[in-house]
């Protein structure tokens, strides 16, 4: 059937379909009057219609006379399909260069994306690059991605006349508005090439997400943006901090600026070098490239000078009001009895604080702002406290420490920060931040707000997380039940999934309670295409199936660890006369039933052996390898009856609390989950001896797991942590 009409929206011409049709010599009439959000459409000569950019592209690939345009065999066609799923990443602003980087590495030793001739996969990537306009042209000239530029140039050289006509007709200087009609069903699943599970480069589906819209930073100038990520070293980095860290990274890259990491180490009672070291580790895990690491404690001398200057200027005073009374007075708008003390009296008490005397320990420094302001953060906030506890970096040199509210505006200005990113929960303190900078006589640093990331059934307060650690409820800050970066990675989350999850939310200021399911669903779409498959049988009450016509001598076959991904490698599977199956599976089998033994073939269960209590203790059957797997109801995983099987401990986790969201004032101890960890003993195939800590695998019909403790000796089980798949977390 001929293509009679090719219809699409003028605002989003499907370049790859247009190019494929032109190269294939297909010349339908063009109708570019469809509404903006319409899918491109072929109207065939018999009146039938096809819709969606990649549906049309595949149709041309199959119908064209060009050699191998849609691959020369089923495998190459599938590879092309993978590239078609990947191509929309080039229409996602934040991920454009990530896509370029991956494709550049992939093309290092290749002339074409698939096989040895031009295919529709090449045209899909060409269209994504060409459709970006000047963005790709500048990268192409910069030699940043030499293999990608070489590939692109060779295609343009070979097919320049046709392709140049298309770019002239449909692409402006800024590119096309909606490259590749990204709203079509074909392209709703965007894929991302990332480092795969166990160190190899592979393709990972990003799972139905829409490309993130670019976010603007107010008054930002390209090349002049300087940001800071400023965690307090009082715990490990958690998923909430990750949002702030990754937004800083995003804006720095967007505006060709810088990010510094600054440790807000102003409270020696909570902080330690352990936390500093692990925060640096977590920041690097997130892929954040920082300009330098600084510490608020580097500025303690200058901050003390500034505090004294404000005291002498009458903009701050020393107060010995007890803390609880002070809090009540601030709430009620009552001025402290010390507010109007003389400068001399204030300086005298300030010196007592610096010396850490008994009198000094009773005092704090407060800013003299406005005790009647409706914004209570402006009601004379505390600037300095007296604390004799040694500091983790500088020991006992100081007895006074600045508060975050005082130190942050100062250090931000001194370090040349242009924009301070902070979560919207601190919105009321923005006025305080600006007022303190004004009183200090420093330049104004712009605050950019974003919503705090909250997760269901999850505590993100470091104070509360510390309680779990100190009370032995978890094994440490990297426990797989914890929302820390190290904890969720240990449970099996890929950093790529976390980054995608955060970036998709953007810098929204709307407070949201997010479900873990969405994050784990993204993760599954990354790990499933590449993780190796293995087999396990639950140890408890496992059942031996004896195949009377099975092999008298065991034999071994080498089969893929992943049927659709060669990079997963191979495994040795032993076939024996007797095999182990799960008791739960045995209970589903009826006498005379034909079942499928995965990676072997069909068998017919002739006899079910039970003990006096009716429990199944054994099965007998015969092989029926010529039987069709399509006719069987049960597809069974199994293990050979050999000594080389490995012992496993399968660990499943649950939330630490039983309530989705704590209400204000509610004590988390009242909603502790009494059972958050479940261990099950199992046996696994012998190939699992080669697992390394951190490797991710799928136990067929049981789910995804991450190896936490690899094989050391036969007496010690391999420990595998269950990874949620997004359906139940």
From TrEMBL:
<dbReference type="InterPro" id="IPR001412">
    <property type="entry name" value="aa-tRNA-synth_I_CS"/>
</dbReference>
<keyword id="KW-0963">Cytoplasm</keyword>
<dbReference type="GO" id="GO:0005737">
    <property type="term" value="C:cytoplasm"/>
</dbReference>
<dbReference type="GO" id="GO:0005524">
    <property type="term" value="F:ATP binding"/>
</dbReference>
<keyword id="KW-0547">Nucleotide-binding</keyword>
<comment type="similarity">
    <text>Belongs to the class-I aminoacyl-tRNA synthetase family. Glutamate--tRNA ligase type 2 subfamily.</text>
</comment>
<dbReference type="InterPro" id="IPR000924">
    <property type="entry name" value="Glu/Gln-tRNA-synth"/>
</dbReference>
<dbReference type="InterPro" id="IPR014729">
    <property type="entry name" value="Rossmann-like_a/b/a_fold"/>
</dbReference>
<feature type="domain" description="Glutamyl/glutaminyl-tRNA synthetase class Ib anti-codon binding">
    <location>
        <begin position="531"/>
        <end position="618"/>
    </location>
</feature>
<keyword id="KW-0030">Aminoacyl-tRNA synthetase</keyword>
<dbReference type="Pfam" id="PF20974">
    <property type="entry name" value="tRNA-synt_1c_C2"/>
</dbReference>
<dbReference type="Pfam" id="PF00749">
    <property type="entry name" value="tRNA-synt_1c"/>
</dbReference>
<dbReference type="InterPro" id="IPR050132">
    <property type="entry name" value="Gln/Glu-tRNA_Ligase"/>
</dbReference>
<dbReference type="InterPro" id="IPR036282">
    <property type="entry name" value="Glutathione-S-Trfase_C_sf"/>
</dbReference>
<dbReference type="GO" id="GO:0032991">
    <property type="term" value="C:protein-containing complex"/>
</dbReference>
<dbReference type="GO" id="GO:0009791">
    <property type="term" value="P:post-embryonic development"/>
</dbReference>
<protein>
    <recommendedName>
        <fullName>glutamate--tRNA ligase</fullName>
        <ecNumber>6.1.1.17</ecNumber>
    </recommendedName>
</protein>
<dbReference type="InterPro" id="IPR004046">
    <property type="entry name" value="GST_C"/>
</dbReference>
<dbReference type="Pfam" id="PF00043">
    <property type="entry name" value="GST_C"/>
</dbReference>
<dbReference type="GO" id="GO:0048608">
    <property type="term" value="P:reproductive structure development"/>
</dbReference>
<dbReference type="InterPro" id="IPR004526">
    <property type="entry name" value="Glu-tRNA-synth_arc/euk"/>
</dbReference>
<keyword id="KW-0648">Protein biosynthesis</keyword>
<dbReference type="InterPro" id="IPR020058">
    <property type="entry name" value="Glu/Gln-tRNA-synth_Ib_cat-dom"/>
</dbReference>
<feature type="domain" description="Glutamyl/glutaminyl-tRNA synthetase class Ib catalytic">
    <location>
        <begin position="224"/>
        <end position="528"/>
    </location>
</feature>
<dbReference type="InterPro" id="IPR049437">
    <property type="entry name" value="tRNA-synt_1c_C2"/>
</dbReference>
<keyword id="KW-0067">ATP-binding</keyword>
<dbReference type="Pfam" id="PF03950">
    <property type="entry name" value="tRNA-synt_1c_C"/>
</dbReference>
<feature type="domain" description="tRNA synthetases class I (E and Q) anti-codon binding">
    <location>
        <begin position="635"/>
        <end position="708"/>
    </location>
</feature>
<dbReference type="GO" id="GO:0006412">
    <property type="term" value="P:translation"/>
</dbReference>
<dbReference type="InterPro" id="IPR020059">
    <property type="entry name" value="Glu/Gln-tRNA-synth_Ib_codon-bd"/>
</dbReference>
<dbReference type="GO" id="GO:0004818">
    <property type="term" value="F:glutamate-tRNA ligase activity"/>
</dbReference>
<dbReference type="InterPro" id="IPR011035">
    <property type="entry name" value="Ribosomal_bL25/Gln-tRNA_synth"/>
</dbReference>
<dbReference type="InterPro" id="IPR020056">
    <property type="entry name" value="Rbsml_bL25/Gln-tRNA_synth_N"/>
</dbReference>
<keyword id="KW-0436">Ligase</keyword>
<feature type="domain" description="Glutathione S-transferase C-terminal">
    <location>
        <begin position="101"/>
        <end position="156"/>
    </location>
</feature>
């Amino acid at each position: 059937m001929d293509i009679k009409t090719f219809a699409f929206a003028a605002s989003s011409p499907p370049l790859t379909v247009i190019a494929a049709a032109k190269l294939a010599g297909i010349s339908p009439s063009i109708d570019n009057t469809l509404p903006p959000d319409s899918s491109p459409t072929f109207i065939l000569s018999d009146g039938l219609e096809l819709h969606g950019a990649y549906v049309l592209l595949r149709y041309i690939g199959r119908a064209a006379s060009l050699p191998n345009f849609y691959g020369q065999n089923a495998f190459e066609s599938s590879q092309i399909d993978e590239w078609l799923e990947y191509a929309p990443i080039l229409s996602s602003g934040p991920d454009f260069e990530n896509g370029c980087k991956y494709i550049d590495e992939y093309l290092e030793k290749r002339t074409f994306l698939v096989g040895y001739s031009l295919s529709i996969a090449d045209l899909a990537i060409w269209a994504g690059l060409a459709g970006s306009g000047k963005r790709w042209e500048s990268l192409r000239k910069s030699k940043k991605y030499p293999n990608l530029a070489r590939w692109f140039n060779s295609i343009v050289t070979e097919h320049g006349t046709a392709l140049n006509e298309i770019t002239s007709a449909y692409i402006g200087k800024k590119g096309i508005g909606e490259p590749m009609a990204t709203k079509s069903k074909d392209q709703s699943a965007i894929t991302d090439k990332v480092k795969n599970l166990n160190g190899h480069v592979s393709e990972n589906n990003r799972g139905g997400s829409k490309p993130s819209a670019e976010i603007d930073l107010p008054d930002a100038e390209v090349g002049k943006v300087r940001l800071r990520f400023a965690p307090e070293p009082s715990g490990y980095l958690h998923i909430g901090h990750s949002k702030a860290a990754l937004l800083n990274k995003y804006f720095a890259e967007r505006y060709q600026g810088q990010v510094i990491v600054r440790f807000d180490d102003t409270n020696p009672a909570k902080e330690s070098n352990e936390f500093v070291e692990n925060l640096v580790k977590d920041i690097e895990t997130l892929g954040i490239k920082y300009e330098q690491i600084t510490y608020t404690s580097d500025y303690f001398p200058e901050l003390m000078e500034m505090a004294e200057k404000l005291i002498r200027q009458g903009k701050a005073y020393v107060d010995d009001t007890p803390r609880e009374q002070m809090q009540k007075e601030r709430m009620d708008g009552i001025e402290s009895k010390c507010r109007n003390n003389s400068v001399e009296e204030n300086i005298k008490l300030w010196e007592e604080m610096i010396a850490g005397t008994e009198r000094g320990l009773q005092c704090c420094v407060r800013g003299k702002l406005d005790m009647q302001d409706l914004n209570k953060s402006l009601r004379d906030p505390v600037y300095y406290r007296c604390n004799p506890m040694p500091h983790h970096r500088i020991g006992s040199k100081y007895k006074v420490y600045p508060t975050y509210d005082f130190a942050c505006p100062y250090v931000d200005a001194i370090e040349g920060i242009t924009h301070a990113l902070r979560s919207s929960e601190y919105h009321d303190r923005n006025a305080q931040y600006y007022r303190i900078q004004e009183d200090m006589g420093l330049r104004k640093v712009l605050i950019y707000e974003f919503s705090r990331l909250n997760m269901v059934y999850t505590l993100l307060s470091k104070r509360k997380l510390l309680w779990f650690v100190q009370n032995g409820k978890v094994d440490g800050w990297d426990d797989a039940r914890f929302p820390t970066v190290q904890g969720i990675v240990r449970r099996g989350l890929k950093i790529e999934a976390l980054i995608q999850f955060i970036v998709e939310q953007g810098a929204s200021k709307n407070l949201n309670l997010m479900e873990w399911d969405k994050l784990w669903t993204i993760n599954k779409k990354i790990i499933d295409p590449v993780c190796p498959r293995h087999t396990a049988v639950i140890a408890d009450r496992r059942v031996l199936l004896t195949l009377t016509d099975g092999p008298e001598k065991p034999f071994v076959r080498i089969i893929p660890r992943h049927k659709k991904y060669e990079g997963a490698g191979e495994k040795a599977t032993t076939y024996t006369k007797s095999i182990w199956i799960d008791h739960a599976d045995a209970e589903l089998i009826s006498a005379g039933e034909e079942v499928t033994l995965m990676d072997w073939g069909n068998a017919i269960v002739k006899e079910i052996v039970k003990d006096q209590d009716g429990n199944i203790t054994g099965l007998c059957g015969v092989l029926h390898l010529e039987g069709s797997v399509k006719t069987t109801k049960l597809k069974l995983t199994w293990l050979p009856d050999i000594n080389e099987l490995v012992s496993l401990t399968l660990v499943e986790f649950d939330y630490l609390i039983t309530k989705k969201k704590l209400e204000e004032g509610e004590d988390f101890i009242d909603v502790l989950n009494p059972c958050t960890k479940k261990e099950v003993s199992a046996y696994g195939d012998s190939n699992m001896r080669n697992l390394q800590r951190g490797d991710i695998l799928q136990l067929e019909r049981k789910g995804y797991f991450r190896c936490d403790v690899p094989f050391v000796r036969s007496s010690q089980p391999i420990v595998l942590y269950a990874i949620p798949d997004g359906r139940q977390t």
